[in-house]
Amino acid sequence: MAARDTLMYSEAHESADVVARQFAANEAVVAALAAALRAEPPRFIVTCARGSSDHAAAYAKYVFETRLGIATASASPSVTSVYAAEQQWQGALFLAISQSGKSPDLLRNAEAAKRAGARVVALVNVEDSPLAALADTVIPLHAGPERSVAATKSYIAALAAVLHLCARWLDDAELGDALQRLPQALRDNWSADWSPLCDALADAHNLFVVGRGYGLGIALEAALKFKETCGLHAEAFSAAEVKHGPMALVGPDFPVLCFVQDDDTLDSTLAVAREFRGRGAQVLVAAPGLHGAGMLPVATGLPAMLTPLLIIQSFYRAASELSLRRGFNPDVPPHLNKVTETV
Questions:
Q1: Are 169 and 38 in contact, with CB atoms under 8 Å apart?
Q2: Kind plus residue range of the DSSP H or E element containing 295
Q3: Which residues have CB under 8 Å from 307's CB, separation 6+?
Q4: Distance (Å, rounded) from C-alpha 220 to C-alpha 235?
Q5: To the nearest 10°, the Cα dihedral for 51, 52, 57, 59?
Q6: Tell me, what's the pLDDT at 335?
Q7: Strand locations in 2-62, DSSP E?
Q8: Cβ-count burial of 131 within 10 angstroms (0-12 exposed, 13-18 middle, 19+ buried)?
């Protein structure tokens, strides 16, 4: 099997069309929600999700806190679904993110949020799901059926939906224009050559994935996909946090993958990469416009906040190839199902 024959590859390849379709289909509902949020701003934002969707929530935290200045926290679903502890969420925006919209713990948390007086918004791919039925507002991901167990296009769709909401909430014409250019940027960046990642990690046993700010969510997502599709143990860290205890593990030939966007985190993240190289680590860096040994190409021309979508799309393509090289099928990871229902 070639990578292009896998569902993971083909579904990730659909991401540009998914994003374009989503923006067009959701404009009315997102604009209406944004107008309501401007008129009655939430006291804070609570996100609730599991797995890849929670990594989208980690991205949303940075988007909302840096652009809107509203504190955003991730709910621990078990607090409500297992411990049945009532929460003080009056006046909050409760953002539930899910591909299937079926997991019982997410449903219980959405119900609890409504009882507590929060505005419940669902970013969900299955529009007739129980979660969608519970929500005050539904923002469909419009990713279409996703048959590979490994989420790809639905994850990118969730990031795009967060950006769409932020742009309309702020009434930010510059960000709105960048979003219109995003689908073509995804198409153009699909052919970026990330084969050095496959070569470097074909026989690896462990690695760190490092990101910061807008890039931390995709670092978490990539680490999950390494485990899920490649049988490769990976841990994700902030470029700041990795300099504490985890730094002790990094020595000669230890693999490190860094995701970098061109903003105020650029210099500090590249400094960490240089320090790791100085210890003899095998370091790969994905950063827009940077080239040379150990660099993975990323297109320039979009605001830094959008760069993670380009990076993670390229990563998905490379991961489908790496999975096969390591003897796995990326579409059918061992012991996993497409829909995981937790309580």
A1: yes
A2: strand 295-298
A3: 214, 215, 261, 262, 288, 298
A4: 8
A5: 140
A6: 63
A7: 45-48
A8: buried
Q: Are 157 and 142 in contact (CB under 8 A)?
A: yes
Number of C-beta neighbours around residue 240 at 10 A = 15
What pairing do the DSSP bridges indicate for beta strands 206-211 and 137-140?
unpaired
Tens digit of pLDDT for each residue in 242-269? Answer: 977 777 788 899 999 999 999 999 999 9
Q: Are 121 and 135 in contact (CB under 8 A)?
A: yes
pLDDT of residue 246: 78
Q: Which amino acid is at 47?
A: T
- The secondary element (H helix, E strand) that includes residue 283 is strand 282-288
Residue 142 region by backbone torsions, left for phi larger than 0, else alpha for psi between -120 and 50, else beta: left
DSSP class of residue 23? Answer: H
Residue-wise DSSP of 191-257? T---HHHHHHHTT-SEEEEEE-GGGHHHHHHHHHHHHHHH--EEEEEETTGGGTGGGGG--TT-EEE
Predicted local distance difference test score (pLDDT) of residue 1: 81
Number of C-beta neighbours around residue 329 at 10 A: 17
pLDDT digits (tens, 9 = 90+) for 57-70: 999 999 999 999 99
Q: How far apart are CA 49 and CA 100, in angstroms?
A: 11
220 phi/psi in degrees, rounded to 5: -60, -40
> Is-contact 43 88, C-beta < 8 A?
no
Please, where are the H alpha helices in 261-306?
A: 266-278
